[in-house]
Amino acid sequence: MTLPNLRLKRHEDRRLRQGHLWVFSNEVDTRATPLKRFEPGEAAVVEDAGGKALGIAYVNPNALICARLLSRDPRASVDRDFWLRRLQQALAWRERLFPRPHYRLVHGEGDWLPGLVIDRFGDVCVAQLNTAGIERHRHDILAALDRLLRPKTLVLRNDSPSRTLEGLATEVEVIGAPVEHVTVEENGCRFLADPVHGQKTGWFFDHRDNRARAARLAKDGRVLDLFVYTGAWGIQLAAAGAKEVVCVDSSAAALALARENARLNGVADRVAFVQADVFEHLKLLKQEKTRFDLVVADPPAFIKRRKDVARGMEGYRRLNKLALARLGEGGILVSCSCSHHLEAARLQQLVSGAAGIARTCALFARGGQAADHPAHPAIPETEYLKAQFYRVIPWP
User: Which are the catalytic amino acids?
Assistant: First the structure.
């Protein structure tokens, strides 16, 4: 089958030649190859201004990122075997990393599968088909996944904001056996997660290594876990020997599952749950002069779009200032951000500023996303997660 061509303007091939996978609509020579002639998700051969092929991409004429490269080989066939090979490559890496089948199986551009996310919870898989190109190839992708893993249940969490940007409908679909909760195994603990109604795929595997590091620092300490969701941080820290953990979140549903997870791991007697606005509860703790040995601040993304940067940065500054104030001398702050618009250096500046002149802290460790969330080296947006570990130290 002969694919149509998508021609770029002069010099607009530079990013692709440097490894990037995206083509923006203003980079296309629309006189030579009008975008409106493409159907959403249609495969095409991307070529430079001189007509030299750069690879195969799928095209969405209605999106700002109008094409995403799938292969550098312009002769590649984007068929069921293509998707199967890519999934096999992704699986081989995860099986090398983890002894048990609980991980992110596919992480979009980091696995050369732009627009596709799949999390694996044993015999249950949760997938997000976030772009028109992935949606167009849905049948072949799901058939390849079934051939590779034979999951008992596949949950399609096609309710992400990315689909709206791509002009796609949002929906949640369960294929196979009905499922209410899945079991997650992480760092020696077991958790229940909700793959149908929970946030994103129901679980955040990306912080796996950061939670393990924090657990090593928690023994015999008092811990405050902010934005707890289903308890991944606080419960692992309790299991590692923290004598007391206070978990704060505004969601009653999330806290109900977190309580069950505390019982599941035998730490319910050392973990307390508070349903409250995190900022308001931090103010209350200040009034009560309550101190902790370790505080985890892992909020949802305060900066989802570039125009949110100023307001989001103020949110991170306030959060870290209030969190630092709850630590005694020698206390540890784990400050996190999943906003790719907030660079690690900027987060570090915010924490330093939040500490102010009344106290000082030392950054002793940095963490990012786990190895099952590979970042594409040419696409900074794929390296989004920051976890910075600070220790409050006395003035000399």
Answer: 338
The mean predicted confidence, pLDDT, of the chain is: 96
> What pLDDT band is residue 368 in, cutting at 50, 70 and 90?
very high
Residues 144-156 as b/e (b if ≥16 CB within 10 A, e otherwise) read: bbeebbebebbbb
CA 188 to each of CA 169, 236, 323, 324: distance values in angstroms, whole numbers, following the listed order: 38, 8, 28, 29
| Contact present, 174 and 196 (Cβ < 8 Å) | yes
Q: Within the chain, how many helices (H) and strands (E) appear? A: 11, 19
Query: What's the token pair of residue 344?
Result: 């690690």
**Is residue 169 predicted with pLDDT exceeding 90?**
yes
8 Å CB contact between 55 and 71 = yes
Judge whether 293 and 332 are in contact, CB under 8 Å: yes
Stated pTM of the model: 0.95
Amino acid at 207: H
The pLDDT score that the predictor gives to residue 310 is 87
Q: Contact 300/227 with Cβ under 8 angstroms?
A: yes
| Alpha-carbon gap, residue 165 to 64, rounded angstroms | 9
* Alpha carbon of residue 24 to chain centroid: 23
Sign of the alpha-carbon torsion through 306, 309, 310, 311: positive
- Closest-CA residue to 265 (of 203, 199, 181, 183): 183
Q: What is the pLDDT of residues 274-328, one digit of tens each?
A: 999 999 999 999 999 999 999 999 999 898 888 888 888 999 999 999 999 999 8
Of 346-350, 355-359, 389-393, the poorest mean pLDDT is in: 355-359
DSSP string, 319-367: HHHHHHTTEEEEEEEEEEE--TTS-HHHHHHHHHHHHTTT-EEEEEEEE
> 267 in the Ramachandran plot: left (φ > 0), alpha (ψ -120 to 50) or beta?
alpha
Of 384, 320, 336, the closest CA to residue 228 belongs to 336
